[in-house]
Write a structure and sequence with these properties.
alpha+beta, 12-stranded antiparallel β-sheet, 8-stranded parallel barrel, 13 helices, globular, binds (2R,3S,4R,5S)-2-(hydroxymethyl)piperidine-3,4,5-triol
Length: 695
């Protein structure tokens, strides 16, 4: 007996089918099917053959495949009882309903006293589908693996794209070939992590940034995830995402996966990217003051580090305001006796040596200059050299002889005494001072994977937001070590990377745009001489790179030459004029065969305007630039095109190209098919091209 269900959102259809009481399987995920489609016929037609050397039927690859059913791959659920023995889960469907954009499934296992649910929810506005699994058990069990609903991966694909990275090198993409066996990622760092961003792109054959069929997934969890991409001996492929194996340390009667976000596209990787960008901006992040523009940041970290001097900071604040900053963020070094990174984490009181009258005088100067004030914290961390560690050594996670990270350890914030202490400290400072913004850092990985810590972090964020709903929070973890849709439900910005090297930043933000919109992605103009790479980069490249996302600057502004200050001011003013439409725009990555180019376009939702950034990150192998095709435009409209950076073309671009001397008009079709003929450029420079539709 076969039962079927379908889920539609106007962008796509998912069809689920269950045979003989098994948990339903997703038997179709693709373009919208006819309303009259016969789902029973599809289920029958989807059934696979059986040949020699196989079981007499194919164990179902359903939303929670089970070893009990002889499933030949990774099961979707792995439990142990309190004696440490494996629980052989025998779940069978009890109920399922697809209604109003939701698909809810329940299954139970009477032998082991288990019940399992899967929940899907569509979002017609963005095309992103979210789903999660949950489990109840009559007696406490250790959850080793509870996958979010398990989905098949496309068969018309020869590779998948996953994410890795490092400090100052976040969001690195790797294309891995599909082959027999299991690719497992298990992130035990306790953070979504530089090393293991919890996302996956599944391109079908021939897909590029701008065309082809692509599927993508993101697991919205900050505590470290596990991912399985597996091709089984029969050729079927499955994808699983769950909390990292080993991160649930207590026996429980209730458990749940995080939300898994799904998108699919017929417009290449960009179709999935823009769905995630829109979904994050419109459905996940809650903005304290949605109607206000995102402010230009100034952050003092790379200007003064721990060397806080109120006169100097006041001078810097005045220059920053003059350059266009609207929010001044006081970074690490203001509390305890924090003169370097060896001490004081945990002692969240203002350092009276540096600020004899508290933070009030600095905040007054900042606000009198028309800027808001933000403050850095690293709440979950402690240095052994701190009042806190001396008073509460038992609040620290992990063994006493652990290897430290940046001379610091992690507080066990799942203990209510610890999270209450932290809440009171932050709440006290937020109540005493006019603070509109927190930069929330997290510089040490956990001593071992611990999902309870990640849940406690979200609870602490929620509690602070309830008490101070007007305060915005930035998620930072040595740069981009804690970025995911889970933490972004409670925060409004991510510090994407500690690399302010514009060449590195271009690449990082380009790949991060597969998930992140400009509105949440911090990007700062760094010092001329980059502190993390040693490169010296021109101010035009530095400023235009930051202007691609949530703009800010973080060098000592006293180092700027008048020419550099002029460029910074000009780009900052451009960004302010454009930010309203930019924050609603889609970021589309542009195709090209020249590996020395990183190019993207940001297109208004109604395609009425765009800005394209074409960066020459190194020297091309051919002499002349190849035409740069654009994307996402209205093919039937005419656009007036202008090269904003024409003044920075070098003398070696010897011809009076049209774009260098004038604007011109071309159709969206021509721009997307022929492409723009840009001036020859030095490496480490950038072209910025604006376009407006002529109505
Ligand atoms: C790491 C962050 O990523 C930096 O931006 C800065 O805030 C330092 N921590 C401060 O210690």
């Amino acid at each position: 007996m076969t039962k079927t269900w379908r889920l539609d959102d106007g962008h796509q259809t998912l069809v689920f089918a269950s045979d003989n009481g098994y948990i339903p399987a997703c038997i179709y995920w693709g373009q919208t099917l006819l309303p009259t489609e016969n789902l029973e016929a599809l289920a029958a037609a989807t059934r696979l053959d059986v040949t020699g050397g196989m079981l007499d039927d194919n164990p179902p690859l359903n939303l929670c495949p089970l070893s009990y059913d002889s499933f030949p791959g990774q099961p979707g659920l792995q439990l142990r009882n309190q004696n440490g023995q494996p629980v052989i889960c025998q779940l069978r469907l009890t109920d399922a309903e697809a209604i109003d954009g939701h698909f809810n499934v329940s299954a139970s296992d009477e032998t082991n006293g288990l019940s399992w649910q899967a929940h899907f929810e569509v979002c017609p506005d963005t095309g992103v589908i979210s789903c999660h699994s949950s489990l109840s058990s009559l007696s406490p069990v250790f959850v080793e693996w509870l996958s979010a609903p398990v989905l098949p991966a496309p068969q018309q694909a020869d590779e998948f794209i996953e994410f890795s990275g490092r400090w100052c090198g976040e969001f690195q993409t790797s294309r891995l070939p599909w082959s027999a066996g299991r690719r497992v990622r298990n992130n035990t760092t306790g953070r979504s992590g530089h090393e293991h961003f919890p996302g996956l792109y599944l391109p079908c054959l021939g897909a590029s940034n701008t065309c082809g069929e692509v599927y993508a997934m993101h697991y919205g969890w900050s505590g470290g995830h596990g991912m399985v991409a597996e091709e089984m001996p029969d050729g079927r492929r499955q994808i699983q995402f769950a909390h990292a194996a080993g991160s649930e340390t207590e026996a429980v009667t209730e458990a749940s996966s995080a939300r898994l976000y799904l998108s699919r596209s017929d417009l290449g990787l960009n179709g999935c990217a823009l769905a995630f960008q829109r979904h994050l901006r419109e459905q996940i992040v809650s903005w304290p003051a949605a109607s206000l523009p995102r402010p230009v940041h100034y952050n003092c970290w790379e200007a003064v580090y721990f060397d806080h001097n109120i006169e100097e900071l006041t001078e810097i604040a005045a220059i920053a305001a003059e350059l266009g900053a609207e929010r001044f963020v006081l970074d690490d070094g203001w509390f305890g006796r924090r003169d370097d990174d060896t001490s004081s984490l945990g002692d969240w009181q203002v350092d009276a040596r540096k600020y004899p009258q508290g933070l009030g005088p600095l905040i007054d100067s900042v606000t009198s200059l028309g800027m808001g004030f933000g403050l850095w914290f690293e709440p979950e961390m402690v240095n052994l050299d701190s009042e806190l560690a001396r008073a509460h050594p038992d609040w620290i996670l992990g063994p006493a002889d652990q290897i430290e990270g940046r001379q610091q350890r992690v507080l066990d914030i799942s203990k209510s005494a610890v999270s209450n202490y932290l809440f009171e400290k932050l709440h006290g400072l937020l109540s005493e001072y006019d603070i509109g913004y927190i930069k929330w850092d997290h510089n040490r990985v956990l001593p071992s994977a611990d999902a309870a810590q990640a849940r406690a972090h979200i609870q602490l964020l929620k509690r602070l937001r309830d008490a101070h709903p007007q305060v915005e929070i930035e998620s930072c973890a040595s740069g981009g070590g804690r970025i995911d849709f889970g933490v972004l439900q409670q925060t409004q910005r991510v510090w994407l990377s500690d690399s302010n090297d514009a060449l590195e930043r271009l690449r990082i933000q380009h790949d991060a745009a597969l998930f992140l919109p400009a509105a949440v992605t911090g990007s700062h103009v760094g010092p001329r001489h980059c502190h993390t790479s040693g490169r010296v980069l021109d101010i035009n490249l530095r400023a235009w790179t930051a202007a691609q996302r949530h703009f800010g600057f973080e060098m000592d502004p006293r180092e700027l030459t008048s020419e550099e200050a002029g460029v910074l001011k000009k780009v900052c003013a451009w960004w302010k004029q454009n930010r309203d439409w930019l924050f609603d725009a889609d970021i589309l990555r542009l195709d090209g065969v020249d590996k020395s180019i990183i190019a993207e376009i940001q297109v208004a939702r109604d395609a009425s305007r765009f800005v394209a950034f074409v960066a020459q990150v190194s020297t091309s192998s051919q002499i002349l630039p190849r035409p740069q095709r654009l994307s996402g435009l209205d093919p039937d409209a005419s656009y007036e095109i202008e090269l904003l950076t024409r003044e920075s073309s070098p003398r070696l671009s010897r011809r009076d190209l049209l774009l260098k001397s004038d604007s011109f008009t071309a159709s969206g079709s021509w721009l997307m098919q022929a492409g723009l003929n840009l001036p020859w450029a030095f490496p480490a420079t950038i072209h910025v091209i604006e376009g407006r539709r002529l109505d």
